[in-house]
Amino acid sequence: MSSNKKTTPERLAAFSDAVFAVIITIMVLDLKPPAEATLKALLPLWPTALSYAVSYLFIAIIWVNHHHLLRFTHHATSQLIWWNFAHLFMVSLVPATTVWIAATRFAAAPVFVYALVFVLIETAYIAFEGEALSQASDSDITPPLRRITRIRCYLALGMFSTAAAISFWSPRSGFALVCCVLFIYLSPRVPDLHRSVR
Amino acid sequence: MSSNKKTTPERLAAFSDAVFAVIITIMVLDLKPPAEATLKALLPLWPTALSYAVSYLFIAIIWVNHHHLLRFTHHATSQLIWWNFAHLFMVSLVPATTVWIAATRFAAAPVFVYALVFVLIETAYIAFEGEALSQASDSDITPPLRRITRIRCYLALGMFSTAAAISFWSPRSGFALVCCVLFIYLSPRVPDLHRSVR
Amino acid sequence: MSSNKKTTPERLAAFSDAVFAVIITIMVLDLKPPAEATLKALLPLWPTALSYAVSYLFIAIIWVNHHHLLRFTHHATSQLIWWNFAHLFMVSLVPATTVWIAATRFAAAPVFVYALVFVLIETAYIAFEGEALSQASDSDITPPLRRITRIRCYLALGMFSTAAAISFWSPRSGFALVCCVLFIYLSPRVPDLHRSVR
Amino acid sequence: MSSNKKTTPERLAAFSDAVFAVIITIMVLDLKPPAEATLKALLPLWPTALSYAVSYLFIAIIWVNHHHLLRFTHHATSQLIWWNFAHLFMVSLVPATTVWIAATRFAAAPVFVYALVFVLIETAYIAFEGEALSQASDSDITPPLRRITRIRCYLALGMFSTAAAISFWSPRSGFALVCCVLFIYLSPRVPDLHRSVR
Fold first, then answer.
1. Nearest chain C CA: its distance from D21 CA (Å)
2. Neighbouring residues of D102: CB distance < 8 A, sequence distance ≥ 6
3. Which of A37, B31, D135, D182 is the most interior residue, by most CB within 10 Å?
4. Rounded percentage of chain C residues whose pLDDT exceeds 70
5. pLDDT digit string (tens) for B19-57?
6. Complete DSSP assignment for A149-165
7. Chain A interface includes B15 (CB < 8 A)
8. Listed residue (B51, B94, C21, B4) closest to D17, CA to CA
């Protein structure tokens, strides 16, 4: 039952989930099958397939982190709500830039914009994370873990910025560098998430 | 567990959230990347970018207010349900009118229709708000706060109507006036939301 | 916390809500703004506007009834789940048929198919309702109310079938008859919903 | 209220539901009405109608199984979360391959890819199921039921692989074999689901 005293990080979580779900599946609409009915006709679609897979994986990582963070919040403060909207806005730019890099087969400007969108996502995420963790006590998250979390965010931000910069010289290296951040987020998360979610 | 005695403003909230989430992300489908792979090719897209950002921000504000209001409701009465559907119907017209103002680069008729849609959204919202707050006691919401809430709604309604009227003479001023309402809703909300949601 | 003993009509409700939310807003994608920036250019869009409004209202009514019914269920039996999927499948055909009647400006065959889709929706709904109400005791729903509910359903089914039949002679009368069912569902619902949801 | 101690298979379920809901309804966008307003014009659309119905039914079955499985989980471990994302990724490929088999009227390569997507869905599902059931005790699920569940999965995997293989010789037989798996999943599920969900 609803109560006017209850704070609702749950509704924030539910709304964000719905937005993530729509964004992650809206990219599917750009997976147009080839006109011919042959397997060879699938080959030229590799930029679409690769960029879809990378963007899907990123949004999955963003969801896991978002879900992890919201567990520390007790109140849906307006700062938290607005940084969340800023974060979701930046994430909502991923499908269009994904289509652009696929259509231009990893040209310089689209990869630059793609990396830039991730710089913006990460910036909004850092603000969102700061707000969420300000509600957590030391027993919720130990100071060393808090430091590691922050370092990883700034490292990702630095790598996305570098990827944006080098994409003008070598867009494919820029895209590869963006992909590297995936592994930063994926690998050290696995043990710690496992422990803390259990 | 479900019980036939339970009233469910929660399911109303969840359904509305899903509709807001789809509406806010459906606008992304109209963010078509340019055909060329240059940054200059992005420049002519500014009307799309601006109108997307403004519409996104509006739907975010509408969600925050909706979320705020539903905290006062204890029963999903049929009046509340139907005003909510009327409200969501009007909000569902935002993406199409956003595309229209972007495609015509802020021409008179599209900006008029855009402002008109906000007049309709605000009208349905005022009825929805009246129904939701009729369930709130004075300890839930103080009489002065109730009065301020109502005044702000009618002020917004007046500004949207004015924006619609002047958009025939100067569509860009009309659009700017619509944007002004954003700041009315944003700025005084922040302190009060922060206090009350906490 | 999840428990393997818990039955979950809640997850069924949440999933159905998400499907309804996507279906109701997917129709928005067919609201294409006119090419010219004049109000006159909106006039030829009246079939789209009318059919969108009618279909929106129908899905809203379906949601209200669905939400009302699920309050009587205690267990998500597989019959309930599968009739629900059959019902949602039929509802998912509404957007495409709505586009068809709008594009052909209420021609005979499209209106026939539109009415037929509502015959199918109503048939699946009657089966779903039977299953849901078989879980309700006489204190949940009084025998006279149960009878009225059933009569209304068969009345709607008859009217949709008649509308389908007459649409070959006069498609606009067929469409008007479909709209009449809206009022059957809307008007007597209001008092009883109000009483029972409170 | 959110607590940092709480594990949340619920949010995993809610997010997956939203993704399933969007995928199942996104296929509706490809149900384009014919240009002419005659019933005959609907006939050539049978490949679209058939493939939409089959894909809809598959996603419904996947949802039922997913919903059934998550009832056994107590913790959203990161393995569970990532296998779920892998599973949803594979399911997200269904709409595009559905369009392809409909557009090419069940040609060899598209049916091969369609069957292959189901091989991948089933593979991810087996891993997801293993992880979910590893949390269940013998009182939650009896060892014989556990064995039957596993056998059915490998049987489905074998049939999807066979369907992929034979689709090069006879694509329509391949598609028919894929459909047969539907009945394996549908028929024995009904009694056991009914018993266990109640």
1. 5
2. D30, D47, D48, D50, D51, D52
3. A37
4. 90
5. 999 898 888 887 888 888 888 888 888 888 888 998 899
6. HHHHHHHHHHHHHHHHH
7. no
8. C21
Taking the C-alpha atoms of residue A63 and residue A68, their distance in angstroms, rounded to an integer, is 8
Please state the separation of Cα C109 from the chain's center in Å: 21
Q: Which residues of B touch D18 (CB under 8 A)?
A: 18, 21
Transcribe B63-79 into DSSP letters: HHHHHHHHTT-SS--HH
Please provide residue C138's backbone torsions phi and psi, each rounded to the nearest 5 degrees. -70, -20
What is the reported pTM? 0.86
B14 touches chain D (CB under 8 A): no
Residues from chain A contacting residue C18 (CB–CB below 8 Å): 18, 21
**Encoding tokens for residue D29?**
């966008």
pLDDT digits (tens, 9 = 90+) for D53-75: 988 998 898 888 888 888 888 88
CA-closest candidate to residue D194, choices C75, C126, C88: C75
User: Which three-class secondary structure state does DSSP give residue A104?
Assistant: coil
- Biggest alpha carbon distance in chain D? 61
- Tell me which chain D residues have a C-beta less than 8 angstroms from the C-beta of C112: 39
What single letter denotes the amino acid at residue C16?
S
**Rounded-to-integer distance, Cα D88 and Cα D78, Å:** 15
CA distance A5 to chain B (A): 8
Chain C, 38 to 67: residues with Cβ < 8 Å from chain B are 38-39, 41-42, 53, 56, 60, 63-64, 67
- Degrees, nearest 5: CA angle A58-A59-A64: 100
What is the three-class DSSP state of B27?
helix
pLDDT digits over B64-99, tens only?
Answer: 888 888 888 888 888 889 999 999 999 999 988 998
Q: What is the pLDDT of residue A148?
A: 84
CB B50 within 8 A of CB C55: no
pLDDT value of residue A186: 67
Tens of pLDDT along chain A (198 residues) come to: 333 444 578 888 888 988 999 898 888 888 888 888 888 888 888 888 888 998 899 889 888 888 888 888 888 888 888 999 999 999 999 988 998 998 898 999 999 999 999 999 999 999 999 988 888 887 778 888 888 888 888 999 999 999 999 998 999 999 999 988 887 776 544 444 444 443
Structure-token pair, residue C134: 């078989």
User: Tell me, what's the pLDDT at C5?
Assistant: 42
Predicted confidence band at C91 (pLDDT cuts at 50, 70, 90)? very high
Neighbour count for residue B190 (Cβ, 10 Å): 13
Closest residue in chain A to residue C17, using alpha carbons only: A18
**Angle at alpha carbon of residue D64, lines to D159 and C89, rounded to 5°:** 95
Which residue in chain A is spatially nearest to D30 when comparing CA positions? A29
Q: Which among B6, B77, B96 has the least Cβ separation from residue C31?
A: B96
Of the candidates D160, D19, D161, D180, which has an alpha carbon nearest to the alpha carbon of residue D92?
D19
**Which residues from chain C sit within 8 angstroms of residue B26, using beta carbons?**
25, 28-29
ipTM of this model? 0.84
Contacts of B21 in chain D (CB under 8 A): 18
The nearest CA of chain B is from the CA of C180 a distance in Å of: 18
* Chain D contacts in chain C segment 73-132 (CB below 8 A): 75-79, 81-82, 85, 88-89, 92-93, 95-97, 99-100, 103-104, 107-110, 112-113
